């Protein structure tokens, strides 16, 4: 059975090249005829990892190809994921599996609701990759991929293919708790790096602001039934800031490069969830407003 990877950006290419290297059948689905033509001219994806470079001639196709899709890795940004799946929906096998790599929360649930016949597996990834040119991915940071089904359920048998491909993974019996925890970390850290124009480590100068945000985020997690994900949140935020002190957050990099952010699925999702529960989170709302204003001033989408 072939994997189909929808979106050959940074993470999609990282997964596709590792599967291909292990001899596991994989196809990439590109968004336009132009991009397919560019790929066919290049003839392969390039993976750079620990100073080594490898070339991977992975079969590529457009969303409107006709072969059925049994296992789909959705590697688009959160704001593109649902529309991208819609384009190939007629090809989804009745019992297909969709792995959703998106950061934050909101997009995964919309997809799971829209395609109830598919088994959706949510993924929380702490691996790091970036594109260096359109057909070249650089594996920049080792990490973990937590996979899980939102309603629990057994681990799929094909996890051994990830072992063979050297893709680190763990099956999580509570993937929503993992996604909420990561969302809370991202909400505490990423917007402040944008607004203070700084690396993660410099946020240690804004301890009081971090502390107030963590307090509201912890209350929100508790109100959402995610009390375990709220435990020691502030301590974990400080640990991540210290461990990634020299880095710029992903949102900082998006803004610096003039790219749309995933704000709707991070701070936006946090604020909407609080509102729907009637929970007052004035600091999160104020941060959301300031961040949107900052994006507007930089000519970027505010959603
Ligand atoms: P990316 O922008 O590099 O790649 C997304 C790709 O999807 C692009 O190539 C884009 O052209 C493609 N795409 C969009 N719409 C499409 C369509 N309709 N059909 C086919 N392709 C389409 O993004 P990324 O950095 O790989 O991130 C993907 C997701 O993974 C995001 O939610 C991100 O937050 C998350 N994530 C990324 C990293 C990382 O290190 N890059 C780490 C953890 C989580
Ligand atoms: O995930 C991150 C990001 O930059 O998106 C960290 C490093 C945890 C900062 O929130």
Automatic annotation (TrEMBL):
Gene3D superfamilies tied to this protein: N-(1-d-carboxylethyl)-l-norvaline Dehydrogenase, domain 2, NAD(P)-binding Rossmann-like Domain
Record key words, sorted: NADP, Oxidoreductase, Pantothenate biosynthesis
Top-level taxon of origin: Bacteria
SUPFAM superfamilies: 6-phosphogluconate dehydrogenase C-terminal domain-like, NAD(P)-binding Rossmann-fold domains
The keyword Glycoprotein belongs to this UniProt entry's keyword annotation: no
Family matches, as Pfam families: ApbA, ApbA_C
Domain Ketopantoate reductase C-terminal, residue spans: 174-293
Pathway(s) annotated for this protein in UniProt: Cofactor biosynthesis; (R)-pantothenate biosynthesis; (R)-pantoate from 3-methyl-2-oxobutanoate: step 2/2
EC numbers for this chain: 1.1.1.169
Chain ranges of the Ketopantoate reductase N-terminal domain: 3-151
Class of this enzyme: oxidoreductase
Reaction(s) the record says it catalyses: (R)-pantoate + NADP(+) = 2-dehydropantoate + NADPH + H(+)
InterPro entries xref list: 6-PGluconate_DH-like_C_sf, 6PGD_dom2, ApbA, Ketopantoate_reductase, KPA_reductase, KPR_N, NAD(P)-bd_dom_sf
Function: Catalyzes the NADPH-dependent reduction of ketopantoate into pantoic acid.
Sequence similarity: Belongs to the ketopantoate reductase family.
Protein name, entry field: 2-dehydropantoate 2-reductase
Species in which this protein is naturally found: Pseudomonas songnenensis
Lineage: Bacteria, Pseudomonadati, Pseudomonadota, Gammaproteobacteria, Pseudomonadales
């Amino acid at each position: 059975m072939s994997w189909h990877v929808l979106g050959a950006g940074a993470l999609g290419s990282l997964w596709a090249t590792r599967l291909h290297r292990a001899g596991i059948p994989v196809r990439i689905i590109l968004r336009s005829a132009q991009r397919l033509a560019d790929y066919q001219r290049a003839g392969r994806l390039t993976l750079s990892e620990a100073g080594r470079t490898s070339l991977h001639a992975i079969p590529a196709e457009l969303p409107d190809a006709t072969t059925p899709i049994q296992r789909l890795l959705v590697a688009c940004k959160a704001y593109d994921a649902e529309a991208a799946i819609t384009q190939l929906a007629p090809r989804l096998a009745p019992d297909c599996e969709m792995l959703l790599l998106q950061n934050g929360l909101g997009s995964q649930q919309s997809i799971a609701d829209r395609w109830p016949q598919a088994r959706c597996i949510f993924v929380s990834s702490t691996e790091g990759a970036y594109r260096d040119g359109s057909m070249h991915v650089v594996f920049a940071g080792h990490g973990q991929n937590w996979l899980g089904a939102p309603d629990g359920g057994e681990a799929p048998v094909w996890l051994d293919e990830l072992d063979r491909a050297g893709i680190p993974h763990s099956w999580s019996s509570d993937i929503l708790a993992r996604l909420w925890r990561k969302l809370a970390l991202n909400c505490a850290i990423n917007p402040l790096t944008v607004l203070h124009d700084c690396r993660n480590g410099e946020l240690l100068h804004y301890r009081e602001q971090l502390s107030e945000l963590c307090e509201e985020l912890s209350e929100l997690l508790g109100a959402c039934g995610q009390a375990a994900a709220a435990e020691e949140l502030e301590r974990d935020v400080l640990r991540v800031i210290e461990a990634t002190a020299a880095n710029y957050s992903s949102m900082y990099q998006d803004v610096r490069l003039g790219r749309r952010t995933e704000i709707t699925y991070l701070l936006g999702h946090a604020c909407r969830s609080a509102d729907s529960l009637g929970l007052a989170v004035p600091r999160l709302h104020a941060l959301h407003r300031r961040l949107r204003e900052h994006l507007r001033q930089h000519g970027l989408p505010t959603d």
